[in-house]
Amino acid sequence: MTHPSNTESSSPTAQDGAATELVVDVGPIAHGGHFVARHEGRVIFVRHGIPGEKVRVRLTDSGESSRFWRADVVDVLEASDDRTRHFWPLADSLAAWRKGGPPVGGAELGHVTLERQRLLKAEVLAEQLKRLAGLELNVEVEPAAAGDPRSNSVAGSDGETGLGWRTRASFAVTPGGRLGMHAHRSDVVIPVHEMPLALPGINDLRLWDIDLRGISRVEVAAPANGSRPLVLLAPEAGTDARRLNRILGQLPHEVSVASFDPVGGDVLQLRGRTWVQESAAGHQYRVTGEGFWQIHKDAPATLVGAVTRFLHDGGYLLPGSAVADLYAGAGLFTAPLADAVGITGSVLSVEGSPGTSRDARKNLHGETQVEIVQGRVERVLRQRLRSFDALVIDPPRAGAGKAVVSQLIESGPRAIAYVSCDPASFARDLGYFRNGGWRLESLRAFDLYPHTHHLETVALLVPAA
């Protein structure tokens, strides 16, 4: 498909005084949701394009001394067959820039068909594995719930939209007190009146109708099981109790509300509970405040299914097995691991956050085969020397890192299930494992963040010898 344009000159053109526009050919996708283009030998990381397109871009970050520039697509001159109408005008780069400003972040692939999105994510994963782990491997990116043996989900199936999956959402607040979201890599806050990626339970709160003056940030958790949502408010310095009470009075009465400190993590009850009740793998989980929980409504079942299947089928997760769940959070993996090993086995559950570790203690209360320890993974492994049949690790986006990988190898497990939300840090860590005498036995990838560049992987690692 080709869309006509007034000019197709590749020379830089100034718009609105300062902004510069160029015509470029969009190249391959890069990690981070950008596509690689070039202008006079300089690399430009372009957002909102598709490989093979000819587009007009607006430079958003440039300088003659910069190694690369950044840009948003503002017009499509020659479109890919995989381009589709963006589901969210505020996140649509073309529509946003026509109105004079940048799009909101968080839906940077919404202009691409879901099938092509997954192919692009697979390309990113393959490139990171080759560059950082020295491994040539192509892995299909599967839809959410594909890791759950109870699911019949099929990639690209009729009716699949990739919308309404977020159980958590983070919002900023405009200077005028309206709910908003940041533009990509910007302090600009754009007012929003919907969040199409979120569950109805979040949109039904209609937070955009509330006067949020005195609040700097809003976090919302709406469990997929339909239980009581939680709204977290981060007050600005000087916001008094009367202002908080006014905001409280505008929120639905059945919603729990708390204030929180984004830096210290302290949570103060304002109404109802300071936690939400989540459900997964036949268990109930209490998750307090900003405590970590998988965002996609189907992610817990997907990831638990993939991890336990890898370990069980390999003979590493059986009645009587000794396993550890590292970076365990509130115990998403700990509980099904405890089910699998039974009372004759053992599960060591390690989490660094004190509040989240307390949640894990409550969630696993009564499971005598489970030991909950709060602390750094490498320290706990040094202090609790024992033999493990398997380890499950689900580190933060930065990955485990070289020192922790070395400690994991030294602990001598028979297998490690590695859950990752970042292909670059995973590939880097996989390289460390390979250098330490381990190999990748199996790898699956899941599209748990539709319409964004993010993906999740589950890997089974075993000693090479």
From TrEMBL:
<comment type="similarity">
    <text>Belongs to the class I-like SAM-binding methyltransferase superfamily. RNA M5U methyltransferase family.</text>
</comment>
<keyword id="KW-0808">Transferase</keyword>
<feature type="binding site">
    <location>
        <position position="294"/>
    </location>
    <ligand>
        <name>S-adenosyl-L-methionine</name>
    </ligand>
</feature>
<keyword id="KW-0489">Methyltransferase</keyword>
<dbReference type="GO" id="GO:0008168">
    <property type="term" value="F:methyltransferase activity"/>
</dbReference>
<feature type="binding site">
    <location>
        <position position="351"/>
    </location>
    <ligand>
        <name>S-adenosyl-L-methionine</name>
    </ligand>
</feature>
<feature type="active site">
    <location>
        <position position="421"/>
    </location>
</feature>
<dbReference type="InterPro" id="IPR002792">
    <property type="entry name" value="TRAM_dom"/>
</dbReference>
<dbReference type="InterPro" id="IPR029063">
    <property type="entry name" value="SAM-dependent_MTases_sf"/>
</dbReference>
<feature type="binding site">
    <location>
        <position position="394"/>
    </location>
    <ligand>
        <name>S-adenosyl-L-methionine</name>
    </ligand>
</feature>
<dbReference type="GO" id="GO:0032259">
    <property type="term" value="P:methylation"/>
</dbReference>
<dbReference type="InterPro" id="IPR012340">
    <property type="entry name" value="NA-bd_OB-fold"/>
</dbReference>
<dbReference type="InterPro" id="IPR010280">
    <property type="entry name" value="U5_MeTrfase_fam"/>
</dbReference>
<dbReference type="Pfam" id="PF01938">
    <property type="entry name" value="TRAM"/>
</dbReference>
<protein>
    <submittedName>
        <fullName>Class I SAM-dependent RNA methyltransferase</fullName>
    </submittedName>
</protein>
<feature type="binding site">
    <location>
        <position position="327"/>
    </location>
    <ligand>
        <name>S-adenosyl-L-methionine</name>
    </ligand>
</feature>
<feature type="active site" description="Nucleophile">
    <location>
        <position position="421"/>
    </location>
</feature>
<keyword id="KW-0949">S-adenosyl-L-methionine</keyword>
<dbReference type="InterPro" id="IPR030390">
    <property type="entry name" value="MeTrfase_TrmA_AS"/>
</dbReference>
<feature type="domain" description="TRAM">
    <location>
        <begin position="13"/>
        <end position="75"/>
    </location>
</feature>
<dbReference type="Pfam" id="PF05958">
    <property type="entry name" value="tRNA_U5-meth_tr"/>
</dbReference>
